[in-house]
Amino acid sequence: MGSTTKLPLTDGERAKLRKAKDKISEIHTFEEENITELLGVSIERAKILKGLADFQNVPSIGSKLAEKLVFELSIFS
Hints:
Blueprint: H1 11-19, H2 32-39, H3 43-56, H4 63-72
Helix pairs in contact: 2-3, 3-4
């Protein structure tokens, strides 16, 4: 696919992801608990990241629409 997953990760979260040799585009395949352990974030933050990644994995939904769904409408899946 031509699009990339865009997530609002901090530098520390990006570093932890790189250290674990995982890619941002793989986040949608992880469970929220795995994201929590992998990145050292709260379950709420993991839920947001997974929701953003899940929506961006759907064709025709980009990062802007995913952000609106998650942040404005509180829809995560």
